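Continuing from the previous page of notes. For each protein in this section, the sequence appears first, followed by its structure tokens. Read the first protein now.
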Amino acid sequence: MSHKATNWLADINPKDLTNAEFRILFVLCDCHNPSAGCFPKQSYIMAKTGRGSSSVNDALTGLEGKGFIRREQRTNPKTGKREATRYILGFEMDGTQEPSPNSGEGKKGSKPEQTGAPTPNSGDGSISGFSADPSPVFGQNHLRKTGVVYKEEPVKEPVKEPCAAAASHHQDLNLVLDEIWAAYPRKGDQLATEQAAKALIEEGANPADLLAAVKAYAKKSASYDESRVKLSQNFFAGDFWRRHVPVAAKVASRDEILQARAKTILEGKTFLCRSITAHAAGECITAGLVTPQDCLQAGIAL
């Protein structure tokens, strides 16, 4: 955590943030490097906070709406592949407030910051050169005493321990979405494209089929005028994308779909099981192919 990020976070009124927003803002500040910026992956934020994808996204949206952060989506100009999101913290934005008396920035007589070996996560030297006083809420930490009294509030939602399997699932999903975006011939809105593809996967579509359809369409439309090629966010609307799934990759019947889905549940394949909705699992239960206990053991919430 950089010195400026530490002071800025310490000066924020706790009442301005929800429990989830504070946890995530703390992680962002911890990853901030004054010379390089802040680029943590969402899977890393989830693992450090123990929160799921929707909880993290809601908190990030809340922080952005309150002006504490700004997200910048970046794309490699040569490959078209999505790169890590950059998080601009409040003190880095134009028009930020002058340093407060508590922050120590610009005040004479402040102690020089100590140097130290880079930390494994932030790559930014020592966290702070000031002596640390344990806070009443967080115990031993690296924040300077600011005079702000933190009031403990009950956690409004269950706090889950970081799950390596869940983090791995999101990492795998992001890789698939990156491949889809890189392969598509006419790129439009990247976020809308990824959300459309992700929604299909969560409804039970095979990620491999989506990628195969994109590659087949890219090959087919190579000779088209650009205006004839669908924008990426429109490709997954309706059943248009299904027309381009290679025949060999298509499942022949509904019974085979249910049997393949039941096999995935029984084998407990983490990545695929987490893309199976409660409704899809219920169809397998109704067909007598799996039991509710099989679904629960595979990590599917019914």
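Done with the first. The second protein uses the same format. Note its length before scrolling.
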Amino acid sequence: MRTVTRKITWVFLAVVLLAVLFVAARPVVGGPRNVPGLKVDKSSIGGVVVNSNGGKAEAGVWVIAETKSLPAPFRKIVVTDDQGRFLVPDLPEGAYEVWVRGYGLKDSERVKAVCGEQVELQVASAATPQEAAKIYPASYWTSLIQPPPMSDLPAKYKSQDEWLATLRNGCNHCHELGMPQTRIYTTAKDWDAMFLRAKSMHQELNGLGRDVVERMLADWGTRIAAGEVPPAPPRPTGIERNVVVSQWDWGFPESFVHDLISTDKRNPTLYPNGKVYGVDRTGGGRLLILDPVKNTTSWLQVEPRDKSHGYSLTKDYYHGTEEEQAYVGEDKEWMASPHNPMFDENGRVWMTVQIRAGGKEYYPAWTKNTIVTGTNDPADVDAAYNMLAARGNNMELGYYDTKTNKFVMVDTGYNTHHLQLDWQGRIWTDGGGSAAGELDTKKLDLTNLETIKATEVGASKNFLRIDPATKKMIPGTGYGEAVSPVDGTVWYSSPVAGGPANKVYMVDPNTDKIKDYPLPAPGRFPHGIDFSSDGNLWVSLGSGQVGRMDVKTGEWKFWDNPGLKFKGTGKETGTTDFPYYLWVDQFNVSGLGKDTVFVTGTTSDAQFVFDPKTEKFSVFRIPYPMPYYARGLDGRIDDPNAGWKGRGLWMTYSSYLPRFTENRSGTVNHMQIRPNPLAN
């Protein structure tokens, strides 16, 4: 009897022990329910994150709550505080899975949770440095690249940092160099085969020196295959833990959504809680639409003016349209290819867009009457016109009217790429080498197509500077533009890494004169451009910095972006990140203060936030789905009296082919900054 009792006792103890081990080994849902300092309401999920080895609280890690029970797949991302606590606020009702990602950790298991619940999430440390490094930003992986010595570079480059500035743009312009798919090649032959997949990559390769680049990248890939990893990025600290990111999936697996718009940048209180519009440069050209209140996404086919001469619904930006125009001078097939949307005060979403076939035979003859040169000498105008007509143009302007749900297209005699509206109703565009274009919407009669056509010439100006001696275009190109809030002058970035075209330049609408401002070292390859409210100019640089020019004195100052440098480089070059664009918060939309500078950490899955007062950066990352590639961004105030909940930034995944992301989809993101990590 005593033996039987002992056996029953041991069996009971074994069952209890197994139960305890099972509970300790899995995430605990529904407890603890009383985390000190945590207030969870019926629209939030909160709790604590602890390490499964010892129960240590994990500070500065991301908690991701996601659901597929809404019309569009939705997730919300927050950061834990120094005690490992988290609170995911303002969740739409749905069935959620909650999980953890953090530097030094293995992604946690997903735990089911509902609003109003508190959960304890357990997470394990990464088993190896290689496992930990899987979620490091691409820019950290590229810090392992060993740049070639100056003696190996093509003769046209005057310094290694000039070559590196060109490399950053050429290899990051469409996607992240350093993302997982780019770290797997270990021979020059493999790299050459990869570069051949797109004309644009091959063109960049030839300019940088094919053999030099392929040897460098093969060495990089070989060392990674052997186990080399970059240093770990720091976890979020301070205000970086206050970020809340709401995220919806949108678009198609092949989409290329260059950027989006939610409001009029001149008045960010317009269209509160309204729809957000993104431009998709695939599928013939599509306008993507998010309704953040209803959690729905939809899309419209962009309607060009004339669908003849090769219009296609199957071509995308990199395999047709501008690709053909850039390399052979003609469009065999073309698509609407919408780009860079901007709201005006009348509910119109303007965009640069192809409205007809490109090529010289379709170039409008009336363009000659719109040309403005530095001298306006008839011979210079003739030279400019002949230059433009020989090439043609394949991007014009158009808008989607949110009130009538119709597309309206406007022809231009100049190429367009980005656009900005000034306070006089003029649309300013960069010309992709044609310097600049101006469309005065007050001079357009938008009643019907015939009156639009009749008023296009009188509403347009095409700026193209001609050297009087050579009758050639003055060196320089155009990419981004910005309008001064102080004097209304219009400024352009010329994205070139060296020589006289490494500059910004200014168009004065009052005189039609253009003035150049060369960039001093270490500034190279100005790309994004914007103004602070005091009239000073800010640029994001392909050399790995952000720069500010005092417009009154012409003096420049530069700051390295956050992150690491290439192996063997010093203060002559910035970090490895390629900051595609930047945006200055003139209206304190973010809540971080007027004139806070947001620099896109394009290859760092992040927004770099620069405080001009302290001259320090904070890093707000989008940790999922990786990679996250940022271009333009937008900010809107939905309710100026609602604190942090009434304002926020809008941005989209802006890389080509979102099927390479973790969830195989593009995303639209609403980033808000609350006063502390547990604010609700």
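What the second structure shows: The chain has a mean pLDDT of 91. Residues 105 and 125 are 4 Å apart (CA to CA). We return to this in next week's lecture.
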